Amino acid sequence: MAEASKINLLGLTRSGVEAYFADLGAKAFHGRNVLKWIHKHGVTDFDAMTDVPQKLRDLLREKAEIRVPRIALAQPADDGTIKWVLELIDGQHIETVYIPEENRSTICVSSQVGCALDCSFCSTAQQGFNRNLTAAEIIGQVWLATRELGRPPTNVVMMGMGEPLANFDNVVPAMELMQEDLAYMISKVRVTLSTSGIVPALRRLGEVSDVSLAVSLHAPDNALRNELVPINRKYPLEQLIPACKEYVARDRRRKITWEYVMLDGVNDSIVHAKALIRLLEGVPSKVNLIPFNPFPGTAYKTSPADRVEVFRQRLKRAGIMAMTRKTRGDDIDAACGQLVGKVNDRSRRHLKRIPVVQECRQ
Ligand code: SAH
User: Residues 199-209: what's their mean pLDDT?
Assistant: First the structure.
């Protein structure tokens, strides 16, 4: 049985572990070995850490623990995608998704239980905000996936439930562990943080991290973006775009990935494509067009595939790299938040706020 007073070593970075071992009066290299046992070998029992002196193991067992989230539900899809619903210590649920591709394997990681941002087309928003995940709960998703798959993923995207920049202090150490040589060794370009655009936190991120950046744009002007991504009212495009440019300015090879969900009759016309081209002029960009993933209670519809393609071609003609994201795991509700919604049986909460497509037309 886990005790609340014990420190969970799962969420500690290399410097965190070293500092903790110094506090215990133990050598830093023992701390680094423990880090390797946890993340490289998946060991959660101190007694199996054979190169750690017995006395130190006894001390660790008394004061610390390695607690990982529990898989409440594993749902494999026909295309190889697996969605896990994880149960946390307080009984709350989050989702982690594994997306295999030919040359890479990606884990989509959650950063919060629910989300406070209320984007009108997002099913996580319907669940409201419950709490931030701890660093251990965030890296715990990568730990679990690594054990389930038998190897670490090649890529991690912070695109699960929640807004990662609203949980900065736990997301940053977790992303450090993803890149850590003694843990998962994922290169900084293969760790992607996706944000709806909390500008001050984005600037702070640039000071401490250089992971890849994806930004949920979804609209080329403030009026429409205010409706779709309400945080835009606080941090409008004239603040967001320069902050993103600055984030990638350190490396000429870097680009911002703009996520743009294609909503039928809302943001998917040629007029929107042209406005987007103007907005992104001079910004090193890749645009990811995401077919809207419908969920119960939403009034939005997915744009027809031919309209998405016309939109994409228009961007390409303007010299903007644009791809359409393949929908994966359709048969298992892989759009974020959907499965948890079912597990929690909170379907009635969808009634709380049903977006009206007409309202979103500007
Ligand atoms: N809060 C972060 C990460 C969460 S979601 C962010 O906003 O970026 C990852 C991406 O999925 C975001 O671009 C989000 O806008 C998009 N998304 C959310 N709901 C969706 C849906 N129903 N269909 C398609 N994309 C969706």
Answer: 97
